[in-house]
């Protein structure tokens, strides 16, 4: 019974064996074995070269990115070359067309998957390197963004791999792309606000008008420190320790003043008035002296004292000074105000307050 089935199975897999062409099959099998062996040896040689000389070459670079890439993609490259050798060796065998299509299709899918894994590992290492560089520069990026980027990269690679595989098996890709386009349009219309916030979040991270830790002033006049840039919104801690949650699209479309970049130097202003009988030049000298003696005021740019206008009851003066840290502006202003008040009192410079003089006229009622 077994003797009767063997020729039937062999004839199904190998055309021509029933007619006595086993010698041709043996030669093809030997050729396929040699092809696979050559590719396998070449894969081992490439792995050996990458592990030995690639490591030595990467030692001359300042970054460890190349070391991490070699460590992650070397096994996949070896597997890729071995699978490619098996795919080419299979094409030399005189198999039935249907059986050959099945085996070659399986190996082709394996090749596409291995290539996608290599690309994903490279992208993953580049993203990890980017995040490490931001952390090294004390510019912490939102933790919720990196997983999203990795998921998007995975989706793109899976989609591209699926299209390549379907194209190999002569499936209609146009209908699939049309269905995906219609589905994406429906999802986009249903979640357009959420997608707008996410896209705006990516724009903020790429354009980087401000970074986490920066102090910014919003279009409405609110001042606060950026504590997080998320997928949908940005969190800003105000000076009163409250947290403002602002949609990313509002920040992208509004005027935002970054108070610490490109330089953290911020200008402070103190406006005050002195009496009309006071010496203006003496008052200006006192203001400059007070500002220069304060450790929080920068020497360059130097503080400036100006006589700005004539008020109803005082001569208005303006003191301009610069502070290196925006968070210190309030404290430095408080110190200067207290010093100005003491100095002006000791120097006899009057700081008037609005007064009104009322003249009463007596009327002659006898007439």
TrEMBL record:
The keyword NADP appears for this protein: no
Domain Mechanosensitive ion channel MscS: start-end pairs: 193-260
Cellular localization per UniProt: Cell membrane
Pfam families per record: MS_channel_2nd, MS_channel_3rd
Top-level taxon of origin: Bacteria
Spans traversing the lipid bilayer: 30-50, 70-90, 102-123, 148-167, 173-191
Topological relation to the membrane, as annotated: Multi-pass membrane protein
Keyword vocabulary terms for this entry: Cell membrane, Membrane, Transmembrane, Transmembrane helix
Entry keyword Cytoplasm: no
InterPro entries reported for this sequence: LSM_dom_sf, MS_channel_C, MscS_archaea/bacteria_type, MscS_beta-dom_sf, MscS_channel_2nd, MscS_channel_C_sf, MscS_channel_TM-2
Residue intervals of the Mechanosensitive ion channel MscS C-terminal domain: 270-351
PANTHER family xrefs: SMALL-CONDUCTANCE MECHANOSENSITIVE CHANNEL (PTHR30221)
Entry's family note: Belongs to the MscS (TC 1.A.23) family.
Protein name in UniProt: MscS Mechanosensitive ion channel
